[in-house]
Amino acid sequence: MIKNLIFLFIIALNFLFYVFFKEENINEVKIIIKPGMQLNQIANVLKQNGLIKNESVFKTWVIINNSQKELKFGEYYFNKKISLNIILEKLKKGKSLYRRLTIIEGSTKSDLLRILHEFDSKKLIAFDDIPNSLVAETYFYKVSDNAEIILNNIIKKSNEISKKIWNERNKQIPLNDVNELFILASIVEKETFIKEEKSIISGVFYNRFKKNMKLQSDPTVVYAITLGKKKMERKLLRKDLKIKSKFNTYVNKGLPPEPICIPGIDSLIAASRPSKSNYLYFVSKNKKNEGHLFSEKYKDHLENIKSVKKKLKNE
Description:
Layout: H1 2-19, E1 24-33, H2 39-48, H3 55-64, E2 74-81, H4 84-93, E3 99-102, H5 109-118, E4 138-141, H6 147-167, H7 178-191, H8 195-210, H9 218-226, H10 265-272, E5 281-284, E6 292-295, H11 298-314
Antiparallel strand pairs: 1-2, 3-4, 5-6
């Protein structure tokens, strides 16, 4: 009798030591618990990744704690070998990893749709499901999130960002709503990637508004041709500026009906708080990091164009 009790006591000690063993460093381990996984499958994942030594012991511990239905799916990170109890608590709390999804400034809804379809094999998300008022930013998602959840999170965060920018705008700008802010910001985004220039270019467009001029933005012509579904494989031609399209600001006055790309925060801020100047024209220096030449008068603008062409010819 005494021998049996001693034997059971030793087994109990070994079990408790196994459940509550000391932490030790191991190689970084990331595991994914997929939706619908049963206890046997979860135990197998933990065993295969070296986080537990025995599947039966882990399953027994889960059952003892009546936690079979409390294990949450997701992606988990471990850099230490920890007790069964801590593993169980982590899986019950669902504190899984977050991944990053970055919408690049100047990308289009078509670009985002292609990304979302990677999360949606049935392609349930359609182009028209993506709103125009999205912000190019880094967003976070869980491996278990589907395309709809990811898109809804992007929409929610974009609304928060744009609402703040709109509320802090220069109240004198002649825009009626956030939608118009996104449209102008999208044009600014495509005109320059240099942060310091964005508010200056925004100011140029507002100056053109005041003088009842057309915006005459080349990126709107590119969008009229591609509709954001592909890249422009050639340079714009003079005849392109006459294309009949609601997006072509060489043909139509005012803003296009929709954004021509997904703008970033800097472009939205620039469109909401433009720099004050008398500039009406600008021309690219045709060097990636050199920006633009600005002018108040058309004759000076023509001279700037000549100087840029001359410089390029001599290079």
